[in-house]
Write a structure and sequence with these properties.
The protein is an alpha+beta fold and 285 residues long. It has three domains: 46 residues, Uridine Diphospho-n-acetylenolpyruvylglucosamine Reductase, domain 2 (2-Layer Sandwich); 113 residues, Uridine Diphospho-n-acetylenolpyruvylglucosamine Reductase, domain 3, CATH 3.30.465.10; 105 residues, Enolase-like, domain 1. It contains twelve helices and 14 strands. The strands form four sheets. It has a five-stranded antiparallel β-sheet. Strands 11-12-13-14 form a four-stranded antiparallel β-sheet. A hairpin with a 2-residue loop joins strand 6 and strand 7. The protein binds flavin-adenine dinucleotide. The site of flavin-adenine dinucleotide has 30 residues, from strand 2, helix 2, helix 6, helix 7 and strand 10.
């Protein structure tokens, strides 16, 4: 049995199709969706592709960034404004899947799939990104925390699509990084940590830390952040942050790693990311 395949060229057309086929699947890069359809053998009544929707294929750089929902990750990572202001996002995309996956996959798809280990979510959390949602009723914007509700669950309502991810401009002196560890290349994260730090001489200023694959949803670590903000930069503070992060998260054991190893590794990545941010201009590996 087949299904209808629609390729609208405007957002208005896409929304009409979403309203006409309430059980349709929206497809951006298809790197999660096609795997899911294959596994479940579900045949949706229609697939609505966003790839030819012109308004969704651009990155606008004005007051912050507006990254269209159909922009492939490769183009996000190579955009000069992303490279200049949002290095943790570039770090995340650099370790993401493979070149083929990065050519197809989108930021919006990564968030809509709502995996606890979604690599782009921790960087977007430290950058205070907003998810722009559009339906026939209008536009609304949600924080990442309000958008990703649980594993595979989002606040997306019937008749809505994500049209863009908006990222406000970063504070001028902020440095940021994303570090993640998987078992092998192309594996999903065992854990991933994004951090953003502003320094005030030898003292830590504002700090944001977020982690993925350590809880049902990617999340900020506010208790760990409060250990660092206002503290003297140095090994003692990084070690305290490491210990706090290990307590603050609630990881599970699964095929990728045990709960204990995830706690250990997350602490290590928190400590390492802060040490690198304080001593260099950021940039991850
Ligand atoms: C080999 C392989 C390696 C991978 N490696 C990684 C990795 O390293 N890190 C990682 O985080 N993920 C990884 N993934 C998962 C996947 O590539 C990402 O989650 C990707 O960002 C999904 O984006 P997409 O555009 O392909 O989404 P799609 O598969 O097109 O869609 C995913 C879901 O989101 C919905 N959706 C997509 N766009 C919208 C929109 N604009 N509005 C409403 N709903 C929408 C779809 O209906 C679907 O339910 C990997 C996948 C594969 C197959």
């Amino acid at each position: 049995m087949g299904f209808e395949y629609h390729q609208p060229s405007t957002t208005a057309e896409a929304l009409e199709l979403v309203a006409r086929f309430p059980d349709a699947e929206i497809i951006a890069g298809g790197t999660d969706l096609m795997v899911r359809l294959n596994k479940t053998r579900r045949v949706p009544p229609a697939l609505i592709s966003l790839r030819r929707v012109q308004e969704l294929t651009h990155i606008e750089n004005g007051s912050g960034l507006r990254i269209g929902a159909a922009v492939p990750l490769r183009d996000v990572a190579t955009h000069p404004a992303v490279a200049a202001g949002f290095p943790a996002l570039v770090d995340a995309i650099r370790v993401f899947g493979s070149p083929q996956i990065r050519n197809m996959a989108t930021l919006a798809g990564n968030l809509c799939n709502a995996s606890p280990g979604a690599d782009c979510a921790p960087p977007l959390l430290i950058y205070d990104a907003l998810v722009e949602l559009r339906s026939a009723a209008g536009v609304r914007e949600l924080t990442i925390e309000d958008f990703i509700l649980g594993p595979g669950a989002t606040a997306l309502e019937a008749g809505e699509i994500v049209t863009a991810i908006r990222v406000p401009p970063p504070p001028p002196a902020a440095r940021s990084i994303y570090l993640r560890k998987g078992r092998v290349q192309m594996d999903l994260a065992i854990t991933g940590v994004a951090a953003r730090l502003e320094m005030d001489g030898a003292t830590c200023g504002a700090v944001r830390i977020a982690a993925g694959a350590v809880a049902p949803v990617p999340r900020r670590l506010p208790r760990t952040e409060s250990v660092v903000a206002g503290a003297a930069a140095g090994a003692e503070t990084w070690a305290r942050a490491r210990a706090e992060a290990q307590h603050e998260i609630s990881p599970i054991s699964d095929v990728r790693a045990s709960e204990q190893y995830r706690r250990h590794l997350t602490g290590v990545l928190v400590e390492r990311s802060l040490a690198r941010l304080a001593s260099t201009n950021g940039g991850g590996t």
